[in-house]
Amino acid sequence: MVLGFEMTVKDHYDRYLGNFYSWTVGDFTEIQLMQEKFFLENEITPGISGLAFDLGCGHGINSIALANLGFSVRAIDFNLQLLDELKARTEHRKIDAIDAHLLEYLYAVRTKAELIVCMGDTLTHLSGPDQVEELIALSAQKLERGGKLVISYRELVNELTNEKRFIPVNSDENRIHTCYLEYLPGYVKVFDILFEREGAKWKQTVSWYPKLRIPVSRVISLFEKHGLSLVKKEVISGMTYLVAYK
Are 74 and 186 within one domain? Predict the structure, then answer.
């Protein structure tokens, strides 16, 4: 089943969120080093081909971290603005930035990878639960024997209520970014609310996009169904990290 939305995730990023996404995330180097630490602690370093696919790479936090650890990275995203930000940071690193939808890329690619990562809520950006299974099934097919799949996302299954639905994201002297969550069967409408200072006044803009509500237990059962073994489950700052082995 694919859920039908009048506003797609790609629309939201292309028209709105891509313009300030990297600012909302915070200090790039600090977060990138945290991700490197996670990979090292989970023994995610090159040992077979050294090829990694970063699905939904954004502006490259995980791609840079993996390249620093010695992987050759194919970084896949559908937002050109974020891919351009990644390219500006690539320098000498072995990173190939690719403009594509992650499922289309997995269907088309003929090379197998030692590592596939799909992190930072990318999983919840898919169009429905069937696409979640597609991603896991395709990842299992495209992994080398002994390779790993790493997924991280916010589960969003338990519904926040009242004022807890308003999530402060980031702010400075010229910008304030807040999210509001509207819970519906199978997904959440995420409203990005941005206030920007224009001289002595503040201007508000709003856009929204859907995020899937995917139980972690469902993802783990799909690992088992498609020949992957869960080796790590950890919650870090509200984000569930899953590491599976082929």
Answer: no
Amino acid at 219: V
Measured in residues, the chain has a length of 246
Pure H helices in 91-128: 102-108
Q: What confidence score (pLDDT) does residue 6 get?
A: 55
- The CATH number of residue 205's host domain is 2.20.25
Coil, strand or helix at 21: helix
**72 is in which domain, residue-wise?**
9-155+215-245
Check whether residue 151 and residue 168 sit in a common domain: no
The reply to whether 146 and 64 lie within a common domain is yes
Beta pairing class for 175-184 and 187-198? antiparallel
Backbone angles phi, psi at 133, to 5 degrees: -65, -40
Instruction: State pLDDT tens for residues 135-177.
Output: 999 999 999 999 999 999 999 999 999 999 999 999 999 999 9
Any domain includes 3? no
Sequence-ordered list of residues with C-beta below 8 angstroms from that of 222, at least 6 positions apart, any chain: 132, 133, 136, 137
Res 3 pLDDT > 60? no
CA 15 → CA 7, 9, 34, 173, 186, distances in Å?
11, 10, 30, 24, 25
